[in-house]
Design brief:
Distance between the termini: 97 Å
Helix content: 40-55%
Largest sheet: 5 strands, antiparallel
Radius of gyration: 44 Å
Number of domains: 4
CATH architecture of the largest domain: 2-Layer Sandwich
Strand order of the largest sheet: 2-1-5-4-3
CATH superfamily of the largest domain: Histidine kinase-like ATPase, C-terminal domain
Shape: elongated
Length: 457
């Protein structure tokens, strides 16, 4: 301010001095003329700078600051510094907003920013995908026009946003979303969406699992307790007693098989149960499985075994024997008497090993195939119980194969049979060396040393 005043006095001082000199030399007329010219020049100078200032102030915010002269130079210089400071602040603010948006876009949850009237201001890509929004058309649109689930409308009107709600996505009926509103200022809210489809599926499977276990245990316990009460209340002859005891033993065996399969599943799923790989010959295992199949079939089926390629496998022999045995026992259970079952092993051209069981059984409809490996999932409950299955066999197969990075391939047709094939990855399979190869003797020793194993579960 002082600088402005001091610079502003220079021009009037010069005019006053020139006026005095002219008055002393040329008289009053010339003095008045010089004073008038100086005053007019000063007024024009200030009006010019005021015009510059007015044009800049009424122009765009990012317009260049004009250059001032004389006493106006400090003023325009101060304005320029303020504008530069504001521009730097705005640049930092834009950078901060951009970083926030980048962070919000990277968040795996959906985020929608709403104003005080619940209209959409911004949304990250995940929210756009989950809620089916399009910012080009939906900005400023009420959120209730786009998220129309009745549960969400009640939630929005309630004003109690402490807990999220779970709704089925209006965009995809197979997707389940968790929605929660989070107020973050006096007039702003964030709508957070999370895809909880898998969590809801796991919760459903857990509920089904508990219900199924309870049901599977309740049936044999009811039978056993009924027979016990009958034997306590009635006098039975030896034949009746033996029949009742036999039925009770069968139900107890069913429970024992169920508990054994549950323990097997629990062991396979335990993070502490680390897979211990061992190299073993596949031929002895295939022969054992064939013998077990004949014992289980009791001559009711035509069984065949085809070992296309001798090989060694890297993995848990017991676990793979359990998985292969479950597939064979299923084929026998669901193939009527006088049907046929083909057990095979081969090594494909890509080096993967394929164990397969093909039968001429009743088959499975295509819509049931994706769920066959779920625990207790049965195509026909009454038929499954009649065959003595626990409903856990294919679940055990699934977990064994996951531990071996293997895949289960299923082909089935109602009334024409099924094929269940296990594909072991190439790193776990090694073809047997040909006769005469130095490594053949090592393979022969591995084959001969394979001791007979017990029946797989």
């Amino acid at each position: 301010m002082k600088l402005f005043v001091s610079r502003g006095l220079v021009a009037p001082a010069i005019v006053a001095l020139a006026t005095l000199v002219a008055w002393a030399i040329a008289g009053t007329g010339w003095a008045l003329a010089i004073l008038a010219i100086g005053a007019a020049a000063a007024i024009a100078f200030h009006l010019y700078h005021l015009q510059l200032l007015s044009e800049w102030a009424s122009g765009p915010l990012d317009g260049p600051v004009p250059v001032g002269r004389g006493s106006w130079a400090p003023t325009f210089g101060a304005i320029y510094r303020q504008v530069r400071t504001r521009a730097a602040y705005q640049r930092d603010l834009r950078h901060l907003i951009a970083r926030f948006q980048q962070a919000a876009e990277a968040i795996p949850d959906g985020i929608v920013v709403l104003d005080k009237t619940n209209r959409i201001e911004w949304a990250n890509p995940r929210a756009l995908a989950q809620l089916g929004l399009d910012l080009a058309h939906d900005t400023s649109a009420p959120i209730v026009n786009l998220v129309r689930q009745p549960e969400f409308l009640r939630y929005l009107e309630s004003g109690d946003y402490r807990e999220p709600i779970v709704v089925v996505s209006g965009r995809d009926a197979r997707m389940t979303l968790s929605l929660q509103l989070v107020p973050f200022s006096l007039d702003k809210k964030m709508l957070m969406s999370r895809d909880v489809t898998q969590l809801e599926e796991l919760a459903r499977m857990r509920r089904d699992f508990i219900a199924n276990v309870s049901h599977e245990l309740k049936t044999p316990l009811t039978v056993i307790s009924g027979f016990v009460e009958t034997m306590q209340d009635m006098e039975l002859d030896t034949r009746q007693r033996e029949r009742f005891l036999q039925l009770m033993l069968e139900q107890a065996n069913n429970m024992q098989r169920l508990v054994a399969d549950l323990l097997t599943l629990s062991t396979l799923e335990s993070e502490h149960n680390v897979l211990i790989d061992e190299r073993f010959a596949i031929v002895p295992l295939m022969l054992e499985l064939s013998n077990e199949a004949k014992a289980l079939s009791k001559g009711q089926h035509e069984l065949s075994l085809d070992i296309g390629d001798a090989a060694t496998v890297l993995g848990s022999r017991d676990e793979l024997a359990s998985a292969f045995g479950n597939l064979i026992s299923n084929a026998i259970r669901y193939t009527p008497a006088r049907g046929w079952i083909a057990i095979a092993w081969r090594v494909d051209t890509d080096g993967s090993g394929v164990f397969s069981v093909t039968d001429s059984g009743i088959g499975v409809a295509a819509d049931h195939l994706p769920r066959l490996t779920e625990r207790f999932y049965r195509v026909d409950r009454s038929r499954s119980r009649a065959t003595g299955g626990t409903g856990l066999g294919l679940a055990i197969v699934k977990h064994v194969l996951l531990r071996h990075q293997a895949e289960l391939e299923i082909k089935s047709e109602i009334g024409r049979g099924s094929t269940f094939a296990v594909r072991l990855p190439a790193p776990r399979v090694e073809r047997a060396p040909p006769t005469g190869d130095p490594a053949h003797s090592e393979y022969q020793e591995l084959t001969n040393s394979a001791a007979p194993r017990g029946t797989s579960s």
